[in-house]
Design a protein that fits this description.
3-stranded antiparallel sheet, alpha+beta, binds phenylalanine, 10 strands, 7-stranded mixed sheet, BirA Bifunctional Protein, domain 2, 2 domains, single chain
């Protein structure tokens, strides 16, 4: 029989055996019969060495084509029967190489700052409360001593859903919900998103996060508020951080103040929060006895705290999901 015919025959019978093959045991038999050490293909290569030199180029080429064809068809079948085997069959793998490191996610910087703020206040007895982001005019303004047409409404440009429903402009609405739902004493913070219809720029965004604090009992004082906020600043920005209380105005606190901290790098005071003694009118609005109870409240922007702490210059970075920014935290 000529070598040409043998090549054709092996090729045909190999492919027909392969297409009848249903199990990996069958496949292993096929491997031994054709590709094994004494298999048909190996024998063919032995025969080839005995050919006269003039025939070698022609048959050498044909045999190599046959070999590639059989191996490819075999591996394809092996993969179908046992999809995981291909890899372990491949001798080219070097198991001593270090593995691939999978990209690791991290918490968003705002989430990190928020949980830091929470644990600082929790360590001095505050509980964490939540409140609605969509609220009525009453809880966001009216009950907080900001009547309709009061000029203080201009301090916070508002997104209205309808004339009576707003996206809250601050977390102070939660003060009212807390006091409506429980009697004093209250010692809570609340974190969440707030919305303002402001021109977007590096320093203001239409959405940001705040932490609100509210303490109501029979004895709290401005001095206690100062001590609480001083403790917070030292924990958050480091011991020895310089801070000052500056008189300010909020309709829902009286007296009111703002807190600035000294920024060594920029060589200037930076405002970080508003605070004050809860206005007796607010206590009356939630039907607390304002001759018996008193308290203090404070509110701060989380982005602002994060920007100062990490030296971030543009508030919009928090909302762009740019991995180059996020991966730094
Ligand atoms: N709600 C105020 C603001 O958004 C902050 C504040 C909260 C001030 C509580 C005093 C007391 O600016």
């Amino acid at each position: 029989m000529s070598l040409d015919n043998t090549i054709k025959e092996i090729k045909t019978s190999f492919h027909s055996d392969l297409s009848n093959c249903k199990t990996t045991t069958d496949l292993e038999n096929i491997r031994i019969t054709y590709l094994g050490r004494k298999g048909k293909l190996t024998v063919l290569f032995d025969d080839f060495t005995k050919l006269p030199g003039s025939e070698k180029p022609k048959y050498g080429k044909a045999l190599n084509i046959l070999k590639t064809d059989l191996n490819n068809a075999f591996n394809k079948k092996l993969n179908q029967l046992n999809p995981d085997s291909g890899k372990s069959n491949d001798n080219s793998e070097d198991f001593s190489l270090p593995g691939y490191t999978l990209p690791k996610g991290s918490l968003h910087p705002l989430e990190q700052i928020t949980s830091e703020i929470k644990s600082i206040f929790q360590s001095i007895g505050f509980s964490v409360a939540y409140g609605p982001e969509i609220d009525d005019d009453y809880h966001n303004f009216e009950a907080l001593n900001v009547p309709k047409h009061h000029p203080a409404r201009d301090m916070q440009d508002t997104f209205f859903i309808d004339p009576n429903t707003v996206l809250r402009t601050h977390t102070s609405n939660v003060q009212i919900h807390l006091m409506e739902n429980q009697d004093p004493p209250i010692r809570h913070i609340c974190c969440g998103r707030v919305f303002r219809n402001e021109a977007v720029s590096y320093k203001s965004f239409c959405l940001f996060n705040q932490v609100e604090g509210l303490v109501i009992n029979e004895s709290s004082s401005f001095a206690e508020m100062k001590g609480t906020l001083e403790y917070f600043v030292q924990e958050m920005f480091g011991k020895g951080t310089k801070m000052r209380f500056r008189p300010s105005y909020f309709p829902f606190t009286e007296p009111s103040a703002e807190v600035d901290i000294w920024n060594d790098k920029l060589n200037q005071w930076m405002e970080i929060l508003g605070c004050g003694m809860v206005n007796p009118n607010v206590l009356a609005n939630v039907e607390y006895d304002n001759t018996k109870y008193q308290g203090f409240a404070f509110g701060m922007g989380i982005e602002r705290i994060a920007m100062i702490k990490y030296g971030i210059k543009d508030i919009r970075l928090f909302y762009q999901n740019d991995k180059r920014f996020l991966e730094q935290f």
